[in-house]
TrEMBL record:
Positions of the Butirosin biosynthesis protein H N-terminal domain: 14-142
Organism: Nonomuraea muscovyensis
Name of the protein: DUF4872 domain-containing protein
Pfam families referenced in this protein's UniProt entry, alphabetically: BtrH_N, DUF4872
Domain of life: Bacteria
InterPro entries: BtrH_N, DUF4872
Domain DUF4872, first and last residues per copy: 155-324
Length: 329
């Protein structure tokens, strides 16, 4: 058995920030999950639907791995990324750093992982790997998936090689801190402003605050979009609240990030942004509750109410991001 020493196998709410936390703590940098999410400018929104999809998807964050890239660039970390179509090379890319005493991040499809409770395909899942033996790989996943877990190496290979939406070709990555500890507090305002700018100036109408407005128009028609409301609507609501989002489609994480920042930086606009995202987080939970009720009852009135809340959310989040984009450096 090969195990990296001094690993703090602490699962958090979201998969990518959980993996980043493991890798960064090993490098001597221990930041809260909201701070990791916020410094990586992780908040976003997408209303994703196509004829090829069985049901629409509501996403609340940037694309898989963009958060990691953003965080590494902002903190001056060395991010080494490997991708390959070769199973042998894929294993070498993770075993070599572990043999050298360094944990590795992996992007994969969680469907194949032995410990995963919900068997759904999601190719943007991220875990940290810190050890292996002849049969198993030792991973850190989110708290809800068990934190420190293990899966068969054969299952891990299938998960890493899966092809489909949001997947990557056996992607693995390591992070190395600079010689001097990063001055991460100096990057708070730039991270907030970059996130706000991307949210307000998204190039297509199903992203950012315009995407939330689009969802407000489409969600009331969701019963016409499914032949199994109990399956599709309940799963959509579950993913918003429990699917590794930290609750409220990542808005609770961003609210808490802004709250931490407001304790470090005295700024009225920052406090306003924090207050508005507190309102948004509560409304997203209410929206998920209404979608659940619609799925359970088949009553479109709940979806009409959800649509009204989404219109409010588009306005609130637009206002919050306009304030946050104006923060002074």
């Amino acid at each position: 058995m090969t195990i990296v020493k001094d690993i703090q196998a602490r699962g958090m709410q979201h998969c990518e920030t959980t993996a980043l936390g493991v890798l960064l703590r090993h490098e001597g940098l221990d930041l809260s999950e909201p701070m990791l999410f916020g410094l990586g400018s992780g908040l976003s929104f997408v209303y994703w639907d196509s004829k090829a999809m069985p049901f629409p998807f509501l996403g609340g964050r940037v694309k898989p791995f963009d958060l990691t890239r953003n965080l590494a660039a902002r903190l001056g970390l060395t991010l080494r990324v490997e991708e390959t179509t070769s199973p042998g090379k894929a294993w070498q890319n993770v075993s070599a750093p572990i043999d050298a005493g360094r944990p590795v991040g992996l992007q994969l499809d969680c469907y194949h992982l032995d410990y995963f409770r919900s068997k759904i395909h999601f190719g943007g899942h991220v875990v940290a790997m810190y050890g292996y033996d002849d049969h198993n790989a030792y991973l850190v996943d989110t708290e809800q998936q068990g934190g420190a877990v293990r899966t068969a190496r054969t299952s891990l290979a299938l998960a890493r090689a899966e092809r489909g939406p949001m997947t990557a070709r056996n992607r693995s990555f390591t992070i190395t801190s600079p010689a001097h500890p990063p001055r991460w507090t100096e990057q708070i305002i730039p991270a907030i402003r970059a996130c706000a700018d991307a949210f307000l100036t998204a190039p297509i109408a199903n992203l950012g605050h315009r995407g939330i407005a689009k969802a407000a128009d489409r969600v009331p028609k969701w019963l016409l979009r499914t032949d199994d409301p109990q399956r599709d609507l309940l799963q959509a609501a579950l993913l918003m609240e429990k699917g590794g989002t930290g609750g409220s489609l990542f808005r609770a994480l961003y609210r808490d990030f802004l709250g931490e920042c407001a304790e470090l930086i005295e700024d009225g606009d920052l406090r306003t942004g924090h207050r508005l995202y507190g309102e948004a987080a509560a409304l997203w939970t209410d929206t998920a509750t209404l979608i659940t009720k619609a799925g359970e009852s088949g009553d479109a009135a709940y979806l009409e109410q959800a649509g009204a809340l989404l219109h409010d959310l588009s306005r609130i989040e637009r206002e919050a991001m306009q304030v946050l984009r104006g923060l002074r450096l």
